[in-house]
Design brief:
The relative contact order is 0.20. By secondary structure, the chain is α+β, with helices and mostly antiparallel strands. It contains 5 helices and 10 strands.
Length: 201
């Protein structure tokens, strides 16, 4: 009997892990977080009382894909923060596995690029698995629905990381524009293109 209970507990733990590993899907309710920003302050989505939602982007310092998107991420924040959808950037990489992603270098990156949005560190790598992020960058558009944060879009920023001038599908902009217009998002998921998230072994 004791052996059966141990096996059942192990199977339950494995099931819970599998669900968490999958992360969110469009329509799921996301949990809030409290993470340290590059200015030393703790940031929570609950801090943004007047926001209609958020553009949460898992990104990092040196991944070529993330670097290629930096200016576009700044542009997203400048365009949509005044409309109620600010960018919240989170670095999910473990600095022990990616030495270019230390907190000090995150601060330098934010200063050098003049980030207009919070750049948070996922200490202990607890948040990105909840979301199911696998790449940098990986985007999650959240919409406030009463007290809930509902996931409305997951995936890439657009369809051409190499050249911002040769983009013909702006996935994140289309998703946020649809939400602002009270319309259904035509494409709620796309494949995130970027570097794998670095985990300390």
């Amino acid at each position: 009997m004791k052996h059966k209970l141990i096996v059942m507990a192990a199977l339950l733990a494995l099931t819970v892990w599998a669900v968490e590993a999958q992360g969110y899907k469009p329509g799921d309710v996301a949990t809030d977080f409290k993470l340290k920003n590059v200015d030393g302050k703790t940031v929570s989505l609950a801090d943004y009382k007047s926001a209609k939602g958020f553009i949460v982007i898992f990104t990092c310092n040196t991944c070529p894909y993330a670097v290629a998107y930096e200016d576009r991420i700044i542009a997203l924040d400048k365009k949509y923060a005044p409309l109620g959808y600010p960018v919240i950037a989170i670095n999910p990489n473990d600095p022990g596995a990616s030495t270019a992603d230390t907190y000090a270098l995150m601060q330098k990156k934010a200063k050098d690029k003049q980030f207009t949005f919070p750049y948070l560190v996922d200490e202990g790598q607890k948040i990105y698995p909840q979301y199911g992020a696998t790449k940098t960058p990986h985007v999650y558009v959240l919409q406030k629905d009463k007290k809930n944060l509902v996931v409305r879009y997951i995936g890439a920023i657009d369809n051409n990381y190499k050249d911002a001038n040769d983009v013909d599908e702006k996935y994140v902009e289309a998703a946020v524009d649809a939400l602002l217009g009270g319309k259904t998002i035509a494409m709620a998921t796309t494949a995130a293109i970027g570097c794998s998230i670095k985990v300390k072994k």
